[in-house]
């Protein structure tokens, strides 16, 4: 007999099903916030790498290289603890008391910094994939750099950027599980607590697996439709034989 997610949650002691669903909402909130921050950092990073001065490009190259080279778990531990300590030291130097940084805000910012490095490279590659003829045609019409970016570059880069950004969103939803190591009450930590309290390890971790799978499948449907919309009017992608 196959059990659905709600059936698995119903097998838990009273209250744990609700706890898992609330933890899922926290995980999605963190993932969405981190993705938005990463998208903003990626936009600035891609612009700086392509059009910035030598110092800006070097700093951005250092940022993306370090973040992509260091394991994400180590980055999360470093940014979560050391970053909070640096903020409080800076506040003390300015005459303020210790700042109470919520786990939610810290989790979003930490994952946002990680997402930003990958988004920088995704968006940079998408911008470079825009046919130069379109850019030159816009310049020939006398478009300003902002108008050229808004009317040509952003629209033309979307079909190339969405697949990579879709992967980053899925990575963000799974990376929220890493915040369990710093004690943030997201889905993975709540699952582990419930399994430890009830000794129903198979039930709880199977339920968590199905929840993550459901999020991935729903996201895949939405992102697939978004990619189809962005590619409207373009020739279909031919798969390699």
From TrEMBL:
<keyword id="KW-0997">Cell inner membrane</keyword>
<keyword id="KW-0813">Transport</keyword>
<feature type="transmembrane region" description="Helical">
    <location>
        <begin position="101"/>
        <end position="119"/>
    </location>
</feature>
<feature type="transmembrane region" description="Helical">
    <location>
        <begin position="152"/>
        <end position="172"/>
    </location>
</feature>
<keyword id="KW-0812">Transmembrane</keyword>
<comment type="similarity">
    <text>Belongs to the binding-protein-dependent transport system permease family. HisMQ subfamily.</text>
</comment>
<dbReference type="InterPro" id="IPR035906">
    <property type="entry name" value="MetI-like_sf"/>
</dbReference>
<dbReference type="InterPro" id="IPR051613">
    <property type="entry name" value="ABC_transp_permease_HisMQ"/>
</dbReference>
<keyword id="KW-1003">Cell membrane</keyword>
<feature type="transmembrane region" description="Helical">
    <location>
        <begin position="20"/>
        <end position="41"/>
    </location>
</feature>
<dbReference type="InterPro" id="IPR000515">
    <property type="entry name" value="MetI-like"/>
</dbReference>
<feature type="transmembrane region" description="Helical">
    <location>
        <begin position="62"/>
        <end position="81"/>
    </location>
</feature>
<dbReference type="InterPro" id="IPR010065">
    <property type="entry name" value="AA_ABC_transptr_permease_3TM"/>
</dbReference>
<feature type="domain" description="ABC transmembrane type-1">
    <location>
        <begin position="24"/>
        <end position="223"/>
    </location>
</feature>
<keyword id="KW-1133">Transmembrane helix</keyword>
<keyword id="KW-0472">Membrane</keyword>
<dbReference type="Pfam" id="PF00528">
    <property type="entry name" value="BPD_transp_1"/>
</dbReference>
<feature type="transmembrane region" description="Helical">
    <location>
        <begin position="200"/>
        <end position="223"/>
    </location>
</feature>
<protein>
    <submittedName>
        <fullName>ABC transporter permease subunit</fullName>
    </submittedName>
</protein>
